[in-house]
Amino acid sequence: MIADGNAGTYGVRVKTNSLSMLSKVIVRIVFTLTPWKSDDPLGGMMKIVVAVLALAFMTAPLALAQQEIDQMTSVWEGVFTEAQANRGQAVYDGACGLCHGRRLNGAPDDPDMRSTPPLARAKFLREWEGRSLAVLFEYTRATMPENNPGSLTDAEFVDVIAYMLSVSGMPAADEELQPDPQSLARSVIQQQP
Ligand code: HEC
After folding, report:
1. For position 3, what pLDDT does the model report?
2. Residue bearing the CA closest to ligand 1, atom 25
3. Global pTM?
4. How remote is the CA of residue 117 from the centroid of ligand 1, in Å?
5. Which residue has the CA at smallest separation from atom 16 of ligand 1?
6. Rounded distance, CA 91 to CA 123, Å?
7. What digits encode the pLDDT tens for the residues 28-72?
8. I need a labelling partner for 91 at 20 to 30 A (CA). Which of 3, 60, 146, 159 fits?
9. In this predicted model, what pLDDT tens digit does every residue of 131-160 receive, in sequence order?
10. Proportion of the chain above pLDDT 90, given as a percent
11. CA–CA gap between residue 122 and residue 111 (Å, rounded)
12. Helix (H, G, I), strand (E, B), or coil: what is residue 73?
C-alpha cells in the first residue's frame, strides 16, 4: 500500500543492522583465516594486519551512518510554520476532505462514500512510524487526490503535510517545510515526541 525504499531513520536502522551483521562475518573470517597457534611469528603479524584492515573497513561506513543519523530531525522538532499549516488546511478542505474527512480521521464528509485511511493522529502515525516525510510526500503526490492525482503543486502538497502534522499535535516553528525531497528525507515521522 505504501511505497517503501525510503531514506529515513528506517533505512539507517536497517543499514546499521546489516553492518553489525557484516562485522560479525568479518570477525569470523579473520579468525578462521589467520593461524592462531603458529610457530611462525609472521602468522601473528598477519593476524594483526588483517584485523586492522577489517576494522578500518567496518568503521568507515559506520561513521557515515552515524552522520546520517545526526542529520535526522523528528517531526516533533518544529518542521513547519503555522501559516503553512493554515494554507494546507485550505488545500485539504478543497482536495482531500471529501474522502479523508473534515477531521482527517478517514470518515468521508459524504456518508455515501467508502471510508479511507486517517491522515493524522495515533493510527496514521503508527502506520508511518519511522518513515521520512519524503516517502509521505512522494506517495501522496504520486497517488492523491485519488480522483485526480497530479492536480496539486509540490508546494501545496507540503502545505497539506504541514496541516496533517499540525492536526496530529506537532508544534509549529519558524521554518517552512520545503518541497525538496532531500530535506524532507531528513524529517522522520515518529509517534511520540
Ligand atoms: C477520491 C477520494 C480521495 C481523495 C480526494 C484523496 N484521497 Fe487519499 N486516499 C484515498 C484512498 C481510497 C486511500 C487508500 C488507498 C490505498 O489503501 O491503496 C487513500 C490513501 C491516502 C494516504 C495513505 C494513508 C495510509 O496511511 O495508508 C495518504 C497519505 C493520502 N491518501 C493523502 C491524501 C491527500 C493529502 C489528499 C488531498 C490532496 C487525498 N489523499 C485525497 C482516497 C482519497
Report:
1. 43
2. 117
3. 0.73
4. 7
5. 1
6. 22
7. 655 555 555 556 666 677 777 777 777 777 776 666 566 666 788
8. 3
9. 999 999 999 999 999 999 989 999 999 999
10. 58
11. 23
12. strand
Copy the grid coordinates of residue 58. 567496518
Amino acid at 16: T
Rounded-to-integer distance, Cα 106 and Cα 127, Å: 14
Instruction: Tell me the Ramachandran region of residue 121: left when phi exceeds 0, alpha when psi lies from -120 to 50, beta otherwise.
Output: left
CB 119 less than 6 A from any atom of ligand 1:
yes
Exposed e or buried b per residue across 37-51, where buried means at least 16 C-beta atoms within 10 angstroms of its C-beta: eeeeeeeeeebeebe
CA distance to 67, 109, 157, 192, per residue, from 143 (Å): 32, 20, 12, 27
Least confident of 19-28, 100-109, 157-166, 179-188: 19-28
Domain boundaries, the chain: 6-71, 74-188
CATH superfamily, region 74-188: Cytochrome c-like domain (1.10.760.10)
